[in-house]
Specification:
Chain lengths: ~110, ~110
Amino acid sequence: DAGITQSPRHKVTETGTPVTLRCHQTENHRYMYWYRQDPGHGLRLIHYSYGVKDTDKGEVSDGYSVSRSKTEDFLLTLESATSSQTSVYFCAISDGQGEYEQYFGPGTRLTVT
Amino acid sequence: GQNIDQPTEMTATEGAIVQINCTYQTSGFNGLFWYQQHAGEAPTFLSYNVLDGLEEKGRFSSFLSRSKGYSYLLLKELQMKDSASYLCAVRDDTSGTYKYIFGTGTRLKVLA
């Protein structure tokens, strides 16, 4: 299995509080991705990174920011959590083109009350 | 724009064959992927197509037609453990970097 972990695995927080989710990899892969998964919507890309300090927005980036200061860590921050951000968040890694598929982390279940 | 369509739900019988279709529209196609996701778990990779044709991996096969923007995943000799969601995803390189766009997934129920 690819070495990819997420922390925390579960979190309950209140509306308006900041939240940071961490994704950590031991594969030295160039690309890292943050998705959210909601019933009826499938996996939607929030932000992704194609190298240290190189990031770009996905289709549902509003209300989220990311940072990648080293290859192995990709942080997702909700500056002021809202109930609409209650979701399961998955991190994924990939080494780039060719047959390099994405490997997914175990997911973080976030509940905003 | 980018759009991926697949059926929401399918039901099949143990031992049968099932085909899950996926149609896509994207400006920078760089490969099509299928993932399996069991309830409460992370997606896991099943197959990859970048050229037209059929790729076979044991009981699973995947087909791609780039001109038609169409793919299918074929599952043979269905087993109960194949009950899961199947996600179609397109890798897009329009921006010069690689993004993966996912369909909403097809939930497959295998009945005894």
